[in-house]
Design brief:
Length: 278
């Protein structure tokens, strides 16, 4: 849950780096108890959760994913303020909006970072659209899921192959499938811990943070897009529509996800970590 410190304009990189450097000297331990840690992290601010993350895991083992939506930009801002050259990646599906590329460049310039990019395998794309065409996703749920698998899920596997921790901007408010999402989980498929520091944030919290900290944001949000996805599959929402109504709006299923956040995220497993403290 965010508190005033998450919205503080005096967030100063020098102060935060100093805080982390001091904390990195904590005693190493060899295992992690997800349930117990979640019990503590649940009431912490996003900054506290991320401080715990970087105190606990090696910096280069931690990667933030962003699709350049509002939540992702909040986390790009916080991580860039906390540590030098945080590892941040995105997936360029090949069907992104121009506005997404614009805020990506803006973030690189403002924070002096170089966001890593992962792409779909050209052979996979070739097989996908052969005989079905480039807009296959409009014709069936199976086609749409196949496209998301090739353009998002498979590149994600490569993106996380060298990571031990995956930071994501998911929020519980964003739909039924995310309502019970823990702050910390273990994702067996990718063999990573997943941390969602904004799990408890409301949409209002996100936009207060963006305004108070002059965070660059995707201009599609000014045009009624609450979330950012691929251009053919994302539209603005109308007043009173659900936040996910603008994604794959032609499908009837109530809970729509691209597949990258579907997992048995509550699996608890021991794994080697360093500098455990909370
Ligand atoms: S969101 Fe649409 S275009 Fe993007 S990967 Fe999924 S089906 Fe393909």
């Amino acid at each position: 849950m965010p508190d005033r410190s998450d919205f503080d304009e005096t967030y100063h990189p020098d102060h935060l780096c100093k805080t982390l450097t001091m904390a990195m000297s904590t005693t190493a331990i060899e295992s992690i108890d997800i349930n117990a840690i979640n019990g503590t992290l649940e009431s912490k601010t996003a900054f506290d959760i991320l401080t715990w993350c970087y105190q606990t895991f090696e910096k280069d083992d931690v990667k933030l994913s962003t699709s350049f939506g509002a939540e992702g930009m909040v986390l790009v801002h916080i991580l860039s303020s906390m540590i030098e050259q945080p590892r941040i990646f995105t997936i360029d599906t090949g069907r992104n909006f121009q506005e997404t590329y614009e805020v990506w460049e803006e973030a690189n310039e403002k924070y002096g970072i170089d966001i890593e990019c992962y792409y779909p395998d050209p052979q996979d794309v070739h097989k996908l659209i052969k005989g079905k065409g480039p807009n296959l996703f409009y014709r069936s749920v199976e086609n749409r899921k196949a496209c998301c698998h090739v353009r998002k899920v498979r590149p994600l596997r490569f993106a996380l192959a060298d990571a031990g921790v995956w930071i994501s901007g998911l929020r519980r408010e964003q739909g039924a499938l995310r309502r019970d999402m823990p702050v910390l989980s273990y994702i067996e498929e990718h063999d990573v811990y997943k941390i969602c520091p904004l799990a408890n944030w409301t949409e209002q919290n996100v936009w207060e943070f963006i305004r108070n900290n002059a965070v660059p944001y995707n201009k599609l949000h000014d045009k009624g897009f609450p979330t950012i996805g691929c251009e053919p599959c994302t539209r603005p929402i109308r007043p009173a529509e659900d936040i996910r109504a603008g994604r794959w709006w032609w499908e009837k299923e109530a809970d729509k996800e691209c597949g990258i956040h579907l997992e048995n995220g509550k699996v608890v497993r021991k794994k080697q970590v360093v500098n455990y403290t909370i």
